[in-house]
Design goal:
The protein has 387 residues and is α+β, with helices and mostly antiparallel strands. Helix content is 54%, strand content 11%. α3 packs across α6 and α7 runs antiparallel to α9. The longest helix is centred in the middle third of the chain and has 42 residues. The two termini are 32 Å apart.
Length: 387
């Protein structure tokens, strides 16, 4: 991996801060305050903001390496960073031309290094993020919104919320928009807990959201476009990169274990070394998969033709396949690390433990259910012709 300054600084935070607090974050199901504070101080939270507004202007590949690097220290921290970048990308790619969003990028995302959370889920839509029951209500230049969300990604700890809803109360469930709400202009009434198997530091319980603000806080265009052109590719590529990061750290622990075994008997190759060699093949393939998709995305650029391509069936299938593949491979890789190391990987108090890694990557197939994605891909494949 060729480390840019962005990735190098994130790698340092991952090893010096995120990794040191990861076990406590996991055990207490608490937000990784130390890691986010370090990212904010290093001005790394504005990596996805275009350079013209003072941000890092990082492309998808660079953001992917940043998320992967952080996830090697703490999976929850990597996921929070990825989710933040996804929301920032929606603002940056669809808010240009809006005085409100251009000011928000300069002042809040770059100067203040605000953390943006996401509310796309809703009770009653059964996991379908492309459908809303709630609607933004506009009166003159003002607007308000109430939403009953099943999960609110690190909502209590964010500085703003980017929320999906219907364009008007009379609109169809699929006629959605994104609305940004800044802290102080909304309330979250928690409706559940976040006592999960893994990704415990993301702190994303359900909540009833109630917010108000100006009508200019509605992201221009439709959520259908924001989703296809930005949210889906950023989500599936950055999630895949951080899942790879978690798996890479687990395999790294397996490699450390095998090397330690080799030192005990100089001149011999430990039996686990062969298994380690085989699992590295799969780890490399997973990395090449998400890197290739990130490179393809960056090479498209951001013109009208690129956005049109992102809305086509071919790109939708590519993103679906990437997400399903990486979310299913990551747990297998961590399982291989467990088998290579043995009981020392199974013990939570061991330096070779991969219990947290295992639990964190099990969430991957559930985040936008693979069954739902496979169903959509199946329908598309009935008519898609790959030219």
């Amino acid at each position: 991996m060729k480390h840019s300054e962005l990735v190098a600084r994130t790698t340092n935070i991952a090893s010096e801060i995120a990794a040191k607090h990861a076990a406590d974050v996991d055990a207490k199901s608490r937000f990784p305050h130390e890691t986010l504070a370090a990212l904010k101080q290093a001005k790394l939270l504005s990596a996805a903001v275009p350079k013209q507004f003072g941000g890092g202007g990082a492309g998808m590949l660079e953001l992917g390496h940043q998320c992967a690097a952080l996830a090697q220290g703490c999976g929850s921290s990597g996921m929070i960073l990825a989710m933040h970048h996804i929301q920032v990308a929606c603002i940056a790619r669809h808010g240009i031309g809006s005085p409100f969003f251009e000011r928000y990028m300069r002042e809040n995302l770059v100067e203040k290094q605000d953390v943006v959370a996401s509310i796309t889920s809703e009770n009653g839509t059964f996991g379908d993020t492309r459908s809303s029951i709630c609607a933004v209500e506009i009166t003159g230049d003002a607007m308000k919104l109430d939403k009953d969300a099943t999960t609110v990604s690190y909502g209590e700890h964010a500085d703003a919320q980017l929320v999906t809803c219907k364009r008007t109360p009379d609109a169809a469930p699929s006629d959605q928009v994104l609305v940004l709400f800044e802290k102080g202009d909304y309330a979250l009434a928690q409706t559940g807990t976040w006592d999960t198997l893994g990704m415990r530091g993301t702190c994303s319980p359900g909540a009833k959201f109630s917010g108000h603000g100006g009508a200019d806080q509605i992201v221009p265009g439709t959520f259908a476009d924001s989703s296809a052109q930005t949210m889906v590719p950023y989500s599936h590529i950055l999630w895949s990169s951080l899942w790879w990061g978690i798996a890479a750290d687990a395999i790294g622990r397996a490699a450390q274990f095998v090397r330690a075994e080799a030192r005990k008997k100089p001149g011999t190759v430990p039996p686990q070394a062969v298994r380690l060699a085989k699992v590295h093949v799969e780890l490399q393939a997973m990395r090449h998969n998400w890197e290739a998709c990130a490179t393809d995305f960056d090479e498209l650029g951001d013109g009208a033709a690129a956005r049109d391509a992102l809305g086509q069936m071919g790109w939708a299938l590519k993103m679906n396949q990437l997400k399903m593949s990486c979310s299913e491979v990551a747990p297998k890789l961590v399982h291989e690390a467990l088998q290579i190391i043995g009981i020392m990987a199974y013990k939570n108090d061991s330096k070779f433990s991969v219990g947290r890694h295992y639990r964190d990557v099990l969430s991957a197939a559930l985040m936008v259910s693979n069954e739902r994605i496979a169903g959509k891909s199946a329908s598309m494949l009935l008519v898609f012709k790959d030219e």
